[in-house]
Specification:
- The protein is mainly alpha-helical.
- It has helices at residues 2-5, 9-31, 34-50, 62-80, 82-100, 105-124, 127-138, 143-150, 154-174.
- It contains 9 helices and no strands.
- Helix 7 packs across helix 9.
Length: 180
């Protein structure tokens, strides 16, 4: 990264070789289209080239920083997409029909409350735990894929996910949403 900050294009090539498959897989999981994922990869590495000085090694390894950057770029890409707007409207229609007459209103309310608590708890987790859980459950990555993406040992990734899930369970138990 020091070489990249100094404008060394060879450093960008090395980083591209090392991280492009990770950036592409995260992009593809979010955008769900190969062409879109390829565009996102280009955007991410262009941003890396232009903003290399913004990376702070003291805050963590480059891999997770790139995953976060990729996720944000992919979500921005989806927000710009007309297809995304159509899917959002379809979802709203489906959600409206399923929420108008819920088969079990208590269950509907309980699930909404649980989802709100989980989102709040995820936000409160240490960043390393939150990132590992998000990659596993929202991006569908295996533990091995997460370990490779974050440049962390497999055992560390498993421990972070387990610790985060234990914390989530404690919050749900304390709020009476899961039996102790």
């Amino acid at each position: 990264m020091e070489r990249l900050v100094k404008g060394d294009s060879r450093a960008l090539e090395v980083l591209y070789d090392r991280y492009s498959s990770l950036v592409y897989s995260v992009s593809l999981r979010i955008a769900r289209q190969r062409a879109s994922a390829e565009e996102i990869v280009q955007e991410v590495f262009l941003l890396l080239w232009r903003n290399a000085a913004r990376y702070e090694p003291s805050r963590g390894p480059l891999g997770p920083w790139l995953v976060t950057l990729t996720r944000n770029r992919a979500l921005d890409y989806l927000r710009r997409s007309p297809e995304r707007q159509r899917r959002r409207e379809d979802f709203r229609n489906d959600a409206f029909h399923s929420s108008v007459v819920p088969s079990h209103p208590e269950l509907f309310i309980d699930n909404a409350r649980r989802a709100t608590l989980i989102r709040a708890c995820l936000h409160d987790l240490p960043e390393a735990q939150r990132l590992a859980i998000e990659l596993a459950f929202f991006q569908g990555m295996s533990h091995s894929e997460i370990a490779a993406a974050l440049s962390e040992p497999l055992g560390t990734v498993k421990t972070r996910i387990r610790s985060g899930l234990i914390r989530l369970r404690e919050v749900l138990e304390n709020n009476g949403l899961v039996a102790k």
